[in-house]
Design brief:
alpha/beta, Gyrase A, domain 2, seven-stranded mixed sheet, 16 strands, about 25% strand, globular
Length: about 350
């Protein structure tokens, strides 16, 4: 029997309200469904790692897609940045057959250490394409459907003890709830979960939600205008810019004078500025992997550079990163109720 945990990237609760989900509803009738807390910053790296470890960033060490490591910007793209073991690796250590299927190579390297048979849609191995066929491009709206179909094929053919599958959020970044493309995506997720439920217990949870953003604030320029020596790291920034254009609702500020930096940002529209101590206490972050300040946007605000003299301008994109994308839906055929996404593996009956 295969126990499956699925991370449904970017599945904001509003998508489930806007589109029919017969398989989800059927599984919920015999199990449990609801909305729980994800981790902040509400990003894919942070939350996928939280899900597969069952731990929060204070233990995982993953607090963003990128951070300053001894003054050098680094992308969090492999397991050397993990501060604790994953539930996948722990199960493999106990002799279980464990498979993890994800969209991007960066995530495969993060979650696939320690005896896990891990594969990505970006660079799929032959054993996976032999079962599931060639994947669409990772920026395709069909990538999530392929991953779930591949997971069902692996479960049917290999019957692993533990299976983790993580989809991609390209569709919710581009299409709001109610749009036709969003409906097709939700239907594909729903069908995929139905197939996985046919082979064993399944727990599904989103990593983060998604909101339409209408305002961009240039934090770096505001600090420079005030004469504050500081470096700003946008938490969402990674090598895959098609989805979000590296514009998200969270940023770390590393400053020689944090009080001066905070004062310079006091009137920034749509921004809430937290000290390192407050941010780490509130969101259980690793203090060695965050800036002196954490800047969080309101529901409509993202942070990023602006060409020209303006410090605030209008944008129109869908993105995440702030507390406003923290609440996420879950589904558990086991009947377990989740208060937080980090409980997903325990809810599936997979011990650490």
């Amino acid at each position: 029997m295969t126990r499956t945990v699925a991370c449904l990237d970017g599945l904001d609760p509003d998508y489930l309200d806007a589109h029919p989900t017969p398989a989800w509803d059927r599984i919920a009738d015999e199990g449990a469904t609801g909305v729980c807390d994800g981790l902040v910053p509400s990003l894919t790296n942070v939350n996928n790692v939280g899900i597969v470890t069952g731990r929060r960033p204070e233990a995982t060490g993953v607090t963003a897609n990128t951070f300053l490591d001894d003054g050098e910007r680094v992308y969090v793209e492999d397991a050397r940045y993990l501060g604790c073991e994953t539930a996948l690796a722990a199960a493999a250590d106990r002799g279980a057959d464990v498979v993890a299927l994800v969209c991007k190579e960066k995530l495969r390297r993060l979650v696939g250490a320690g005896g896990v048979a891990a594969a990505s849609a970006q660079e799929p191995p032959d054993w996976l394409t032999d079962l599931a066929g060639e994947p669409p491009g990772i920026y395709s709206g069909a990538a999530s459907a392929w991953l779930l179909a591949a997971a069902a094929a692996v479960a049917a053919e290999r019957d692993p003890d533990v299976l983790y599958v993580s989809t991609t959020d390209v569709v919710p970044h581009k299409h709001a709830p109610g749009a036709a493309a969003a409906g097709e995506w939700v239907a594909a997720l729903d069908e995929g979960l139905g197939r996985l439920h046919g082979v064993g217990p399944v727990v599904a949870v989103a990593d983060h939600g998604m909101n339409r953003k209408r305002r961009r604030v240039d934090v770096e320029a505001l600090l420079a205008d005030a004469g504050v020596a500081a470096e700003t790291v946008r938490c969402i920034r990674d090598r895959h810019v098609y989805h979000h254009q590296n514009l998200g609702g969270a940023a770390y500020v590393y400053a020689d004078d944090p009080a001066a930096a905070r004062a310079a940002l006091a009137d920034a529209p749509g921004a809430v500025v937290l000290s390192r101590e407050t941010a780490c206490e509130r969101f259980r972050l690793d203090p060695d992997r965050v800036g002196d300040l954490l800047v969080l946007g309101d529901e409509q605000t993202v942070f990023g550079p602006i060409d020209g003299p303006e410090r605030v301008d209008e944008v129109d994109l869908r993105s995440h990163g702030s507390v406003h994308e923290r609440r996420v839906p879950y589904l558990a055929s086991t009947g377990a109720a989740l208060s937080a996404s980090v409980e997903a593996f325990a809810a599936a009956g997979v011990g650490q």
